[in-house]
Amino acid sequence: MTYERPNITRLTPYTPGEQPAGTPTDRSQPPIIKLNTNENPYPPAQPVLDAIRNVSPDALRRYPPPTASAFRQAAADAHNLTPDHIIATNGGDELLRLAITVYCEPRGTYNNTDSPPVGWDKRSASHQSQSPTPGAGIGITDPTYSLYEVLAAIHNTPITRMPLNDDFSIPDDYPDRLNAANARLALIVNPHAPSGRLQPINQLADFAQRFNGILLIDEAYTDFAESNALELLDPARNLTNVLLLRTLSKGYSLAGLRFGYGLAHPTIITTLNKAKDSYNTDALAQAAAVAALQSRDHAAKTWQAVTAERTRLTDRLTDLGHRVHPSQSNFLLTTPTTNAKTLYQNLKAANILVRYFDHPRLTDKLRITVGTPDENNQLLNALEKLQ
Amino acid sequence: MTYERPNITRLTPYTPGEQPAGTPTDRSQPPIIKLNTNENPYPPAQPVLDAIRNVSPDALRRYPPPTASAFRQAAADAHNLTPDHIIATNGGDELLRLAITVYCEPRGTYNNTDSPPVGWDKRSASHQSQSPTPGAGIGITDPTYSLYEVLAAIHNTPITRMPLNDDFSIPDDYPDRLNAANARLALIVNPHAPSGRLQPINQLADFAQRFNGILLIDEAYTDFAESNALELLDPARNLTNVLLLRTLSKGYSLAGLRFGYGLAHPTIITTLNKAKDSYNTDALAQAAAVAALQSRDHAAKTWQAVTAERTRLTDRLTDLGHRVHPSQSNFLLTTPTTNAKTLYQNLKAANILVRYFDHPRLTDKLRITVGTPDENNQLLNALEKLQ
């Protein structure tokens, strides 16, 4: 017997990048060069480790502050906002799920075994479960971060896809198309994944003005870019439909901590707070996250190191004949001279993990996380031999 | 302009128990006796603290194991099951939300401003948004853990409420009523909150046999009870619709860590895994949770201390004229001789926090967490003066 909703039965879950079990210091495993999940190659700041090691038994024993008040104050200080502009989440992923939960209507299909509600038309129910319902759902670009579609499918909300231009820029009529489809939430990852392209902030501001729903700008990689969309929250702009996603996973070397946050007009934050799990972030992560934001100088040095290596890696890959998309992120989308999938497999056999996407427009490309100079050199040496 | 779904606009969010900012060692605050949120009064085991303090920078820098494989093995060892019977979650709350997401259909109302889908009948849409849709939702007892209703309201799924008997036992026709309402998921907290009553395991087994949906038994407080429902997962019973919720928050003194887990037939675990956030538990919490399960003996001593104090507190409250419900949990539901709300407020003024529920059948009662002997003595002394 199947108990779950039909959309869950149909669902293809998100596939995270491979996480080999061994650590770099695990001598029982061959050393793996891990350039597949966009982690920061440098460790987090010492005060972050200290905050974790100094946690009190009482902080573990008791429920954590439900809205992470100390963190929200630290984030407010960092971004020159007030804490009511900020929500802390269990990784950026939770913020994405919350936004979909709060703003997007599910289709409301019923199991075949369920009694239909009064007034329910079988023909229309069948129509709804088979084809996308117009309106009420999310808008995404194509390609984009593949989790967005999975989260929409779990919620069973319609998806409107906007093909990006050849250079991965966003067509100017995107908000018009979203409005025509009656989308309630648009998700734009900026810098773009998997290309690394930075969409112009003025274009995003224009989109926010013209779009009738909430514009979520996923700034997971913003620390490696030359600009961000924070200015859209300037009160003078009066944009009450902009939600920025930030995470400590990449910029602050804390992917293992699961800590993200949202920045938006307080009306948005209040709404998201109503739907979050009551204690969504734990005491350790809150303490570490405060220390991370207060150690921004340490993190900024890692951003400089990564962006310098990004330039060098772009040049060297170009020397090897690759077409490399200009990136403002901590990864490169590159078109090698040989079959991308084969090259991915050969690199993996040589203990170098990069990311291959079996997705239209991406099958001839690899996404490579920028590593340390040594890791990048090992990748380049392997590529010289393999391609 | 309102962007969110109407059910979110209407939502009254969950109210966590008060969490005073000061810690017991914070001398700038008056000492607070905190008996309001059912935390364990004793600290977690030393190996848990060691696991946290020994975390490597690399474990923080990298994404955590997505399904908490080491923890699932430790839980499998602890419960004599295989890891495919186990899902780790960000507190028990996440497991509740996942189960509702996966098994219950939302009503699928649409904003008034949205274009209705093809074939959509306005009259039926209006009906759906106003009154509960028959079927497809959750079944709960009344009273129960108040979060259940909030999670159902966020998902916008129908709720079937079953009033408990006067002694907080569950009427035997509960599964029949759930089936008649076509509920897909029944939530039973056992030991019951807020009464502390342990429902007989045989009755739960019978319910699972007769109920057409998933029976989630929330065993958040099971460590303080004389029996639990683990035997329902015995393969010989062939129950593929039972999901047990466990948490480290109470029994293992780790409410600040946010770590819970589900135990069920592998078909249920596979389904829940499809809908969870991709990295739902963090590296620190996973390491601490493994250490906690492996330090069960330490935790068991705290359970003994709490249950001994539960007996003493029950006796002393009875001496003071209270009617105390027999409890198999780490809290007591008690009917004082004076107005409960006034007594709650007077205790709070004396820096003693207990829980008062403004809910039918509970307005003359207080829920008191069992504390240390010293905390309980201070409570008893205050009650002698105040009531």
The quaternary organization reads as homodimer
Strand order of the largest sheet of chain A: 2-8-7-6-5-3-4
The largest interface is: A-B, 104 and 102 residues
Q: What profile does the largest beta sheet of chain A have?
A: 7 strands, mixed
Overall structural class of chain A, as computed from helix and strand content, comes to: alpha/beta
Cα Rg of chain A: 22 Å
In short:
The structure is a homodimer of 387-residue chains. Chain A is an alpha/beta fold and 387 residues long.
What does this structure look like?
2 copies of one chain form a homodimer. By secondary structure, chain A is α/β, with parallel strands linked by helices. Chain A has helices at 6-10, 46-53, 57-61, 69-79, 91-103, 122-130, 147-155, 174-180, 201-210, 266-275, 283-294, 296-319, 340-349, 373-386, and strands spanning 33-34, 86-89, 138-142, 159-163, 185-189, 214-218, 242-247, 260-264, 323-324, 331-335, 352-353, 366-369. Chain A has a 7-stranded mixed sheet with strand order 2-8-7-6-5-3-4, with helices on both faces. In chain A, strand 5, helix 9 (201-210) and strand 6 form a beta-alpha-beta unit. In chain A, helix 2 (46-53) runs antiparallel to helix 11 and helix 5 crosses helix 7. Chain A is globular, with a radius of gyration of 22 Å.
